[in-house]
Specification:
heterodimer; A: mainly alpha; two-stranded antiparallel sheet; 12 helices; about 5% strand; globular; B: Rossmann fold; 10 helices; about 40% helix; binds adenosine-5'-diphosphate; binds magnesium ion
Chain lengths: ~280, ~240
Amino acid sequence: MIAVGYTMIYGVILLINFAHGEIYMLGAFFAVTFISLLGLPFYVAFFLSMACCAICGVLLDIVAYRPLRQSPRLAALITAIGMSIFLQNLAMVIWGSRPKPFPNEALPAYFEKTAVSFSGVNLSWFHLFIFGVTIVMMVGLNLIIKKTRWGKAMRAVAQNQTMAALTGINVNRVISYTFALAGALGGAAGIMVAAFYNSLYPTMGYVAGVKAFAAAVLGGIGSVPGAMLGGVVLGVAEAFGAGYLSSLYRDGISYAVMIIVIIFIPAGLFGKVLKETKKSM
Amino acid sequence: MLLKLDNVKTYYGNIRALKGISIEVEEGEIVCLIGGNGAGKSTTLMTISGVLTPVEGNVLYQGQSIVAVRPDNIVQMGICQVPEGRMIFPLLTVMENLDLGAYLRKDKNGIKEDFERIFRLFPVLRERRKQHGGTLSGGEQQMLAIARALMARPRLLLLDEPSLGLAPILVDSIFETIRQINEQGTTILLVEQNAQLALQFSHRGYVIETGEIALADSSTELLKNEQVKKAYLGE
Ligand SMILES: Nc1ncnc2c1ncn2[C@@H]1O[C@H](COP(=O)(O)OP(=O)(O)O)[C@@H](O)[C@H]1O
Ligand SMILES: [Mg+2]
């Protein structure tokens, strides 16, 4: 899901938003803060935190990237890395650098209960929740991009900003919406992962961000279905790698996949289609 | 006066692309701007559309300054541009390209009517409506680019080199269509390197040379002008 956020922003403004992993981290911390400090129920905290992440995404764009829109790509890239480090440190100052447990008692009680079980594998309601939310978001995202007026505007901005402006699209606003959507998705992912592993820490976004970036590269950066597929493939590869080699190699596998993809299929799995269409213009 | 450029100077960094351009366009006219490669024609149109901001001078539309107004707001005010190289969205379908032309409009019925009007004007677009813009031929892309601009129901249409890269037969039919669009009430500012054609199809013309207006007259006079004949008509 973070991979999708990356690829969406790259797809629209050709910027690798390295700070996206930090939004995911913030999502987890926001949710925990809402739960433990304000005593909000899990679902409310979940949506509120997504909303905050959407706002963070937009602010990130306005503060860090918009002033650099006309500058060389490298400047924005360096800013992205800088923002990533800044947000990590900000989180350390606010919430401390130690890993925190997720307030499990706030999760609905039935999350623990087994929902389905077949041939010895038990899936809890929490598994189903994660699975369901992910599916709904992915399908929803696809519908937004494919069918809505705003989705069309997003794709237009991605293909040609000048022309998009000449058809009457407010380019900066569309980019803001894209950051908001990517932020909300990233935030949701952060909360679910933190709750699932019962742990959250300021650098969690960094590792996840690298993996998501690998997934996006694998899928062909800029392609949303590619990022979804890349995420699945990478997850399976990691599970196998951890199973057959050693769980120590788990994180290394993402890097290895990324390097192999960049060397052998730089366009990624789905990027190729894009390239060919461009050639035929 | 629908559009008036008053001593407009536009720079790219320290490259002085426009060194003080003054142009006027009356409601209902076809005005052409002719000049060689690099003279500043596209820069003039991009300045009018608000993509570029002049460092000096003024652009007045219906008497109101539109300098530093955002491009999407300028479209909203009724000025649409078909840029050089057509700039079709290659990965959007023909239909989606046209939908984006009507991006700022809310009148569903009017949009429907305009689709019909556009498919009458360019029947080939109806056949191709589900295809990606990038798969169209050059001529079809030019038609799509013009059609997309018309979907906004512009009052003033800016056309940047519509003849570029098209076969001669196609060029004639595109220009016939441009005349038709004008007769249906749209004012047109036409930029061309093909001076002969542009002067035949317009009421008045300006000749632009290295960022300055060198000549301004009615198109019939410019066609007879010795200087124009030598420099632009190859006679
Ligand atoms: N993006 C740009 N950056 C720098 N210089 C440019 C740019 N675009 C155009 N120019 C320069 O501005 C001048 C006018 O260009 P342009 O308006 O495109 O001419 P025309 O459309 O008449 O061929 C040329 O000298 C060109 O080299
Ligand atoms: Mg030009």
